[in-house]
Amino acid sequence: MRRFLRTVILMLCMAAVLAFTAAAAEKKDSQSAVTAKKVSGKTYLYYKDTGKKVKGLTGLQELPKGSKNYYYFQNNKGRIYASGWFNKGKNYYYASKNGKLKSGWQTIGKKRYFFNRKTLVRSTGWKNVNGKYYYFNSKGAQVTKWLKWKKYTFYLDPANGHARTTGWKTIDKKTYYFNSKGRMQTGWFTVNGKKYYANKSGVRKTGLVTINGKKYYLDKKDNGAMKTGWVTVKGKKYYMSKSGSKKGQAVTGWMTSGKSRYYFNSSGVMQKGWLTLGNKKYYLNPSNGKMVTGKKTISGKTYDFGKKGYLTTTPTGAWSIKVNQGTNVVTVYRGSTPVKAMLCSVGLNGATPNGTRYITDKLRWHELMGPSWGQYCEHLSTSPNSVWSSYLFHSVPYNRYRDPRSMSASAYNMLGQAASHGCIRLNVESAKYIYDNVPIGTKVTIFRGTSANDPLGKPSLKKIPSWQTWDPTDPNI
């Protein structure tokens, strides 16, 4: 029995010694330098000091430990990946000829890549490296300069290692702004409390610009910031609204500032000298544009403009009408003087032809397409001697003959934009004005212009509720 116990104890001691020896050998091996050798076209790893093949290791391994030299073993017999790309599932690696895996920034075949310094995996998509963001395509190559990602545009700056740009950046003599996430800004945007504007391509605009039909001044001296108040551009004065929904927009029409009144045309330019609006004549101080009131001597003649600042005149000369399809505005003239502006609806998709026409008749009610009916109608013929025409001035259409309470509210609310089949629709007040005042034979010019062609501007429209079936301007209701 004692002999048996001695034998068991001896065997346990020998096993412990062997295990310790193996562990020590393994530890020694893990600290030993290694070298790669190619055998029959396959690359294996060997210990330099013993010349033995590295065995028993698989996957990603650091050899020697602490050296930051990594290898990827294909099996436990010492074979490693070498000389190029390889992948494990979706993870891609790159091994040099001696099998060492690349890490960090690497240039391979003229393209830049970044390999995670811990996992050695090739990066794709956005990557934060030392606080800077870079972008790598689906194959891991670094993307440079302009990048479209989802619905955003970025600039990966060559001057900064192709890192994502933020803030102001001038590229090819054009200035852009990228927010804190690197997204290029378009349209209106705010930086440090100031408003700026960039077009669809992201290019910052400066100077006097028109945006959605409204003029703004973006001060080049202030990096393109939107200005309010008085501005002078090429000798012309404008006033940009200081508050409200129209902040920054150039004022048109009359403006009161303190005790002074000014007038700005449809382009926003402050007017000076004589100004005629309808049958009223004003005088605006030539030096500062302020409207004159009371008595004033001009060129040796004294006028009395009264408290309201105008002389009442009766325009003379032949009647004429201009229809601006670009703005859906009708302007009535006596001689060269514009006397009345009206909102209209011309034809959709160019259904109203441009050109010269003449008023050839007057019809109190007239059947239109549909059928529907219009009030205060005039045919517009190509000759003053021809009555027939497919095009008319008329009110917004009604569903029933001689029933002013059967109007289409939706058609009324479209005044100021193209909506008809080709005729020129007006509200009742405007249609009746032409019917009552403008004679048969009057010349009508139809053209496509801009707001600059509307000397009295574009009247506003107060929309009506969908249930309302009468024209609020109709004097008979």
Describe the structure.
The chain has 477 residues and is mostly beta strands. The protein folds into 4 domains: 29-122, left handed beta-beta-3-solenoid, CATH 2.10.270; 123-184, Ribbon (left handed beta-beta-3-solenoid); 272-314, Ribbon (left handed beta-beta-3-solenoid), CATH 2.10.270; 319-453, L,D-transpeptidase catalytic domain-like, CATH 2.40.440. The protein contains 3 helices and 38 strands. The strands form 14 sheets. Strands 30, 31, 32, 33, 34, 35, 36, 37 and 38 form a 9-stranded mixed sheet that branches. A 3-stranded antiparallel sheet has the order 11-12-13, with no helix packed on it. A hairpin with a 5-residue loop joins strand 12 (152-157) and strand 13. The longest helix has 30 residues, at 2-31. The protein is elongated and about 130 Å long. Residues 15-29 have low confidence and may be disordered. Keywords: Cell shape, Cell wall biogenesis/degradation, Peptidoglycan synthesis, Repeat, Signal, Transferase. One of its GO terms (biological process) is cell wall organization.
Which stretches are poorly predicted, pLDDT < 50 over at least 5 residues?
Answer: 15-29
- The value of Rg in angstroms is 42 Å
Roughly what percent helix? under 10%
Q: What count of domains describes the coordinates? A: 4
- Percent range for β-strand residues: 35-45%
